[in-house]
Amino acid sequence: MDLEGKVVLVTGATGGLGTAVTQAFLDSGASVAAVSRSTPAPTGGRKNLFGIAADLTVPGEAPHAVEAAVARFGRVDVLAHLAGGFDGGTPVGQTDDPVWTRMFDLNVHAAFYVLRAVLPGMLEAGRGRILAIGSRTALEPAATLSAYGASKAALVALIRTVALEVKQKGITANVVLPSVIDTPANRAADPSADFGKWVKPESIARLLVWLAAAGDDVNGAVIPIYGRA
User: Fold this and answer.
1) Backbone φ and ψ of 49, nearest 5°
2) Can you give the residue ranges of every domain in the chain?
3) Which of 41, 57, 125, 156 has the smallest number of Cβ neighbours within 10 A?
4) What is the pLDDT of residues 174-194, one digit of tens each?
5) From the CA atom positions of the chain, what is the Rg in Å?
């Protein structure tokens, strides 16, 4: 897909998935503003890659990230929101407040803050693509993962609400739901798993690039990408 001249803001850009997604957008011809939580992503001297450090769970950091991207590249055409987190492993009755709060901060509040920051520019331009990474657990809850599943379900509702609000305005919003992603961190966490069944980051990246290049007809979609699980 040709995204020559487009500007993509990628959050969670230095994670196992973020690295593949950033590279896929660069390969498509886009310029990428790569947001990571603590330190700016390395650019390797590439003019079309710009690293931004921002903690998106803090309300004021999302506008900072968007403003930095606009200052560097002039606008944001595509938001690829990959940032999120995983925690859990206990039944609802034993889930403590920090886990519940952490999951909603990482998986819902961060998305809300960056959406609120990026949408005004897209609405003014009359064009834009919003892409978010959810989880299979958003549709298929798993025992002991109440906070994670509920937060990912809330993310789906948030993106679908945005899709309704921007319909007919040249903007689309879609969410992709992977199963377990084949990243080094996930392999380390479950070394006995059959990694061949997990969805590959490159497959997700290609889907996001396609969605970024797709027309206005793809809007409000909740797209599974489960590998062979």
Assistant:
1) -130, 125
2) 7-225
3) 125
4) 999 999 999 999 999 999 999
5) 17
